[in-house]
Amino acid sequence: MPADDLLQTVARLFALLAERHIEYLLVGGVALLQYVEGRNTEDIDLIMDIADVKRLPEIQLTGQDEDFARGTFGGLKIDILQTRNPLFEKVRRKYEVMQHFAEREIPCATVEGLLILKMQALPSLYRQGNFARVGLYENDIATLIQQYRPRLDPLFAELAPHMSETDLQSVRTIVNEVLQRITRFEQGRREGQ
Question: pTM here?
Answer without folding.
Answer: 0.93
